[in-house]
Amino acid sequence: MTTTVPGVIETAEVHFDDFDPMGIVHNARYGILVERALMKYWIRHGWSFDPGRSKLGDATLAVREVSITYHVPIFEAGTVDVHFWIDKLGSSSVVYGFRVLSPDHTVVHAEGRRVQVAIDRETGRPKALSDLLRKAAEPLLVSSPPAS
């Protein structure tokens, strides 16, 4: 990939326990690779596992939906790059698009979407995204998704 694309690319570690008995990364582990990449971005922008320490307000987001299309298996431990962006930033939800790439970006291993909803910790019900979180999300927001 030689062109500039919207979104962010973060590196994620592929560990030996991510592999299935066939010697390829297990399909369920791709969501974890995406999670690891997203966490790098959000922690760097002030999010914390402890809501009292988060610089983004009370940002508790629960995954509502994940869909993944698998293209080329990952056969080796090491690193992959995860390219992600936000397709839609709603009042209480975030819709990400993502691609799991080889380190040199010549192979798209998988691509998909992930929907998260901000929830109130006391009620478990959806709540509005904080203005601080919305501002930190702006660099990820794209008007049209990148081509695969």
From TrEMBL:
Annotated GO MF terms? fatty acyl-CoA hydrolase activity
InterPro entries in the cross-refs:
4-hydroxybenzoyl-CoA_TE, HotDog_dom_sf
- UniProt-listed Pfam families: 4HBT_2
Alphabetized CDD domains for the sequence: 4HBT
Name listed for the protein in its UniProt record: Thioesterase
Native organism: Actinorhabdospora filicis
Query: Upper lineage ranks?
Result: Bacteria, Bacillati, Actinomycetota, Actinomycetes, Micromonosporales
